Amino acid sequence: xxxxxxxxxxxxxxxxxxxxxxxxxxxxxxxxxxxxxxxxxxxxxxxxxxxxxxxxxxxxxxxxxxxxxxxxxxxxxxxxxxxxxxxxxxxxxxxxxxxxxxxxxxxxxxxxxxxxxxxxxxxxxxxxxxxxxxxxxxxxxxxxxxxxxxxxxxxxxxxxxxxxxxxxxxxxx
Length: 173
Prior knowledge:
GO terms for molecular function: acyltransferase activity, transferring groups other than amino-acyl groups. The chain is an alpha+beta fold. The protein has a single domain (about 5-170), classed as Aminopeptidase (3-Layer(aba) Sandwich). The protein has helices at about 15-30, 40-50, 110-125, 140-145; strands spanning about 5, 55-60, 60-70, 95-100, 130-135, 150-155, 165-170. Strands 1-2-3-4-5-7-6 form a seven-stranded mixed beta sheet. α3 links the parallel β4 (about 95-100) and β5. It starts with a strand and ends with a strand.
């Protein structure tokens, strides 16, 4: 099996959206409200591509995963509750968002490989801290995040919405 990560292009959006939709359905089946309001949408994926922040997991020549690696501060991470971020270094941090693996690839531990590559990309860009969040009910993703080496740091709220609470994690490279 050959696998690698590459930058996404606008031509990849239909496949990226299909993977996001599969993730949305899985979350709905688990009764997790995350991604049930139309986010992420085509415009979000295009913005990631335009900012050179969209990365695809390729397995045997096919798109098996999609993610965004943001290299600018995430406004949702400005305030953290019931915890704290590790002291930030002066060079900032990256954050992983909109990550999903295509349904036909579940159970192959590809998320481990994907996270490792995203961490490498962060490191190559001079960012030694990586942050990520997930819904408090998303136990599957929490396991994957912790397995990748992230530490739980507290709670963040999306767009200051008290009903949209997320568990926040951080990893220092």
